[in-house]
From TrEMBL, chain A:
It is found in: Cell membrane. This is ABC transporter permease. The chain crosses the membrane at residues 12-38, 77-96, 108-131, 143-164, 185-208, 241-267. PANTHER family: PUTRESCINE TRANSPORT SYSTEM PERMEASE PROTEIN POTI. Keywords: Cell membrane, Membrane, Transmembrane, Transmembrane helix, Transport. PROSITE patterns: ABC_TM1. Residues 73-260 form the ABC transmembrane type-1 domain. It is a multi-pass membrane protein. Belongs to the binding-protein-dependent transport system permease family. CysTW subfamily. Pfam families: BPD_transp_1 (PF00528). GO terms for cellular component: plasma membrane. It comes from Oceanospirillum sediminis.
Automatic annotation (TrEMBL), chain B:
The lineage of its organism: Bacteria, Pseudomonadati, Pseudomonadota, Gammaproteobacteria, Oceanospirillales. Residues 66-274 form the ABC transmembrane type-1 domain. CDD domains: TM_PBP2. It is found in: Cell membrane. It is a multi-pass membrane protein. This is ABC transporter permease.
């Protein structure tokens, strides 16, 4: 009878402790550098804190200190945005395509999986050499853009697969029966239903591109994206300005995640209201 | 209209197919071709030679790099599977409130959407010679001298891998666990199975494909990695990815290409074994 009272299910206490330790393991290091980024002007890379200041955050915006922070941030945001749009659009389209059987669908599906799990250095090297052989200069908005899509699109595709597998086709059938055209059915029935998942796909598209390092390495050309810039800094910057940068980009990612979740929440609330 | 609706799937799948063709198939073919080319210090020379492979396969450096990489991959896999399974098991079977359940699940996945490089850097103030761990241990007189192997060692490399990739196990395993019919678990308990027996005889077999998907991600991510190994070993350790990266920076593209093709072959062999355990389409 013990199992009826779930609170006292055997193993609850040790497993809860284990889970809490896991969360500390996940977030602890990031929290540490967040604290250290508020070091006083004389503070170093490790504890103790030598006063508290915003000194290193100010340093971040002085160009001579950290290479090209502003420029690389701008490039990463624009690239992430473009990758996000294409990931959302292309994976939605592909998801729709896979609701029917078509020739080559299995091959394309397995190639997408390969794309997801192929070591990123292979993609980076391959695209780098291919552009070199074609006589094209690699840039962040061509070769790096393509390289990022090989990683974000399969993720988007898998999410859309999961969505359409659970999709109730009778809504569509009802719309069609009432005389809606194919476009109207998509626009007013299918699209609103998949929109929350599409926001999730977009979030993945943006953040995966924004943080991508290995695939950008050989494909970004002359100008660095933010992860490349940060990597460059790890070898030659020995002040907490590095931590300040880490804290700023992590906060940026967190706020994006929060916005996306909030948008999904609003959509669901809105839908619940209109249905009732 | 009839023509259009007949072929609409092809139009819808076209952008994906185009990206795969241009940025996956062509680049991999390019690597394959270039791996047979000759080169000198300035340029690539189109040719058909097998020296790149001969050099690679006879060099002891290659073998030690593969051994090192396999060591990292297996150690990381074992640890991430243990931690990932336990965490997923806790969220799936011990948390009854579905809101709390999704909250905890999201807490485990959020770090995936932040920068890996920053997450690696953030170990430095903890593990360094004057880092938090060493100071705490010195302060409490557990040790008399700072531990040197905390940072820039195999330990820190594996620690970083586990830190970065455990959620690749948590997500698919949690997904598998949520599909397990709870009656099966109850039936096992009712028939007198202990908690451990329920795990080994009921839950574990039903999570097989989730564990396989997680293993595929962890193995391929570790096998192809160069940045974690470079940063966390302080440049002291050479995995296969690091070798390729070094050849790239020396502009020895054909050598790097041959190395990449061998890596690709190794990864594909491992995958073909792991894919036997799963039907990926059923998992979505």
């Amino acid at each position: 009878m013990a199992r009826i009272n779930q609170r006292h299910k055997p193993g609850f206490v040790p497993l809860t402790l284990f889970f809490i330790l896991f969360l500390i393991f996940l977030y602890g290091p990031t929290a540490t550098i967040a604290i250290l980024s508020f070091q006083g002007p004389d503070g170093g890379l490790t504890f103790p804190m030598n006063g508290i200041s915003l000194h290193w955050f100010r340093q971040l915006f002085e160009p001579q200190q950290v290479g090209d922070f502003g420029g690389s941030l701008l490039r990463s945001v624009m690239l992430g945005f473009a990758v996000m749009i294409c990931t959302a659009a292309f994976s939605l389209l592909a998801g729709l395509a896979y609701r029917r059987k078509f020739k080559g669908s299995d091959a394309l599906f397995y190639l997408s999986l390969v794309s997801l799990i192929l070591p990123s250095i292979l993609i980076s090297l391959g695209i780098g050499i291919m552009f070199d052989r074609l006589g094209l200069a690699p840039t962040w908005y061509t070769s790096a853009f393509g390289a990022h899509l090989t990683w974000t699109l399969p993720f988007g595709l898998l999410i859309m697969f999961a969505v359409f597998n659970r999709f109730n086709r009778s809504y569509e059938a009802a719309a069609m029966d009432m005389g809606a055209t194919a476009w109207q059915t998509f626009r007013f029935v299918v699209f609103p239903l998949v929109l929350p998942s599409l926001i999730g796909v977009s979030l993945f598209g943006f953040t995966l591109s924004y943080d991508e390092f290995a695939r950008t390495l050989m494909t970004s050309g002359t100008f660095n994206t933010l992860p490349l810039e940060i990597y460059g800094m790890t070898t030659n910057v020995t002040t907490p300005v590095l931590y300040a940068l880490g804290t700023v980009t992590t906060l940026f990612s967190f706020s994006l995640i929060f916005c996306a979740m909030f948008a999904v929440h609003l959509l669901k609330k809105h839908r619940a209201k209109t249905v009732n | 209209m009839r023509f259009f609706s007949q072929y609409i799937s092809y139009f819808q799948a076209a952008p994906l197919a185009l990206i795969i063709l241009l940025f996956l198939l062509f680049p991999v073919l390019t690597i394959l071709v270039v791996s047979f080319w000759d080169y000198d210090s300035y340029r690539l020379i189109p040719d058909f030679i097998t020296e790149n492979y001969e050099f690679l396969l006879t060099s002891p450096v290659t073998y030690s790099a593969y051994l090192k990489t396999l060591f990292y991959a297996i150690a990381t896999l074992v640890i991430t599977l243990l931690i990932g399974f336990t965490v997923a098991y806790y969220i799936a079977f011990y948390i009854r409130n579905s809101f709390v359940q999704s909250l905890l699940f999201i807490a485990c996945t959020v770090p995936f959407l932040t920068s890996n490089i920053i997450r690696m850097i953030s170990w430095i103030p903890l593990l360094g010679r004057n880092g938090l761990v060493n100071s705490a241990l010195l302060e409490t007189h557990i040790i008399d001298e700072p531990i040197e192997w905390l940072l820039y060692s195999d330990f820190s490399v594996i620690l970083a891998f586990v830190h970065l990739y455990t959620l690749f196990v948590v997500v698919p395993v949690f997904n598998s666990m949520m599909r397990i019919d709870r009656n099966l678990v109850e039936a096992a308990i009712d028939s007198g199975a202990s908690a451990m027996q329920t795990i080994t005889h009921v839950i574990l077999p039903l999570c097989k494909s989730g564990l396989a998907i997680g293993s595929i991600f962890v193995m391929t991510l570790v096998m192809g990695d160069f940045i974690t190994v470079t940063m966390m070993s302080g440049g002291l350790s050479a995995s296969v990815g690091v070798l390729i990266r070094n050849e790239i920076s020396l502009l020895q593209y054909p050598a790097a290409a041959a190395n990449a093709i061998v890596l690709l072959g190794t990864v594909l062999i491992m995958l073909s074994v792991m894919f036997r355990f799963i039907n990926i389409k059923k998992e979505l």
